[in-house]
Q: What sequence folds into this?
């Protein structure tokens, strides 16, 4: 299975369980992986047939404007928007990494939807 991955894109969003955590935007890292054959684009080398990374970024930035309690909701919203916008044969995988307010470097979640 082919995939195209945009790794650890930095988003600013308000997210967290406490009001203090959501008081200010915080950096979230998002990796999005399109599970999709790339052979047609490789053969044609046409940009209009390829995944547009800038468009992916714009979709994620728009989603990040909404405050959320959990990284689960953020990941689900990104996956849903991606599947609605692009016809992906094999689905999408989204990983969200957050720096939690506990003694840990990060907490992360990965989901796969089709």
A:
């Amino acid at each position: 299975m082919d995939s195209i991955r945009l790794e650890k894109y930095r988003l600013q969003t308000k997210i967290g369980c406490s009001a203090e955590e959501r008081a200010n935007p915080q950096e979230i890292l998002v990796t999005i992986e399109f599970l999709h054959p790339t052979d047609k684009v490789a053969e044609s080398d046409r940009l209009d047939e390829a995944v547009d990374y800038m468009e992916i970024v714009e979709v994620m930035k728009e989603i990040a404007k909404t405050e959320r309690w959990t990284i689960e909701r953020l990941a689900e919203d990104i996956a849903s928007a991606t599947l609605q916008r692009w016809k992906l044969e094999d689905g999408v995988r989204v990983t969200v990494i957050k720096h939690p307010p506990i003694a840990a470097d990060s907490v992360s979640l990965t989901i796969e939807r089709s």
Remarks:
- The two ends are 14 Å apart (CA to CA).
